[in-house]
Write a structure and sequence with these properties.
This protein has 93 residues and is mainly alpha-helical. It is built from two helices and no strands. 25% of the residues lie in helices and 0% in strands.
C-alpha cells in the first residue's frame, strides 16, 4: 500500500506575490471565524478607500506601521479612531 499524504497541495505562487512582513499578517482570534460581511475587531464593517501618496509618504507610513507592528490599514484606522494621536510639528528642517 502507498502512503498517501493528508496535506493539501501547495498552490504555486504567482510572479507578483511577495512575502508578507509579520505586521501584515492577519491577527487570528481563537474561537472566532472570519465571515465576509461581518465585522471582526470593530463594531462596523470597513470600507475600501483609495489615497494618493508620494513615495516619501508611503515610506513614512511603512516605517510607522512597522514600529507599531500593525498594517498600514490598521495604522490609518487607529489614527482615525484617535487611538494613535498625531502632533503637529512646525519646523521640519
Amino acid at each position: 500500500m502507498e502512503n498517501k499524504s493528508t496535506k493539501k497541495p501547495v498552490r504555486p505562487k504567482s510572479k507578483n506575490s511577495k512575502v508578507r512582513e509579520p505586521r501584515e499578517n492577519k491577527i487570528i482570534c481563537q474561537g472566532l471565524k472570519s465571515l465576509r460581511g461581518q465585522p471582526e475587531f470593530y463594531d462596523e464593517l470597513k470600507k475600501v478607500v483609495s489615497v494618493s501618496l508620494t513615495p516619501t509618504a508611503i515610506e513614512g507610513l511603512n516605517n510607522i506601521s512597522r514600529a507599531y507592528m500593525i498594517s498600514r490599514s490598521e495604522l490609518m484606522e487607529q489614527i482615525g479612531r484617535h487611538v494613535i494621536q498625531l502632533i503637529k510639528v512646525d519646523n521640519l528642517d
